[in-house]
Amino acid sequence: MEFNSNKIYFMKSNELDAIDLQLLDSLQHDASLSNVALAEKVNVSPPTCLRRVKRLMEEGWIERQIAVLNADQLGATLGHGLTALVEVSLDKQGSEHLDAFEARAVTLDAVQQCWRVSPGPDFMLVVQAADMPHYLNISQALFTQDANVRNVKAFFATKRAKFSSTWPVRAAS
Questions:
Q1: Range of 107's domain?
Q2: Is residue 152 within 8 Å of 86, Cβ to Cβ?
Q3: pLDDT tens for residues 124-136?
Q4: CA quadruple 137, 142, 146, 152: dihedral positive or negative?
Q5: 46 and 86: one domain?
Q6: Has this prediction a pTM greater than 0.90?
Q7: Residue 31 in 3-state DSSP?
């Protein structure tokens, strides 16, 4: 495959050009932009912009569009709760065991993120609980009722210094 500096190739058969990358970058920073504003920002016509964004969604480049809530404002209203970063090591690491734990973890709303990692623990979870009794219920359901969970190490967040969900997708100049 010949490298073209105006295109970035991912592990998909589809190609992204510089305009696609500008669209992705703009949308991940502010998905509430109107089609007209987005088209203006990336210097294309509104119909072209709409067609491209639709294609990016259909091809799976855009997984979903969400609103990121302000944790401090929400916490002041609902109670700050606990954020736990949890390392989980399983006794048996066969794919069926990893898949079974992962399937249970992702069904819990309190589990905001679930990552398989290596080396070290098998999973890293980001868990948001209302309070310590709620975390205890989560941990009992997820960790203590599974005979295959060998070790759990929880770290409770005291401050969030940065939170981002953006990817560096800027087009090469």
A1: 71-156
A2: yes
A3: 999 999 999 999 9
A4: negative
A5: no
A6: no
A7: coil
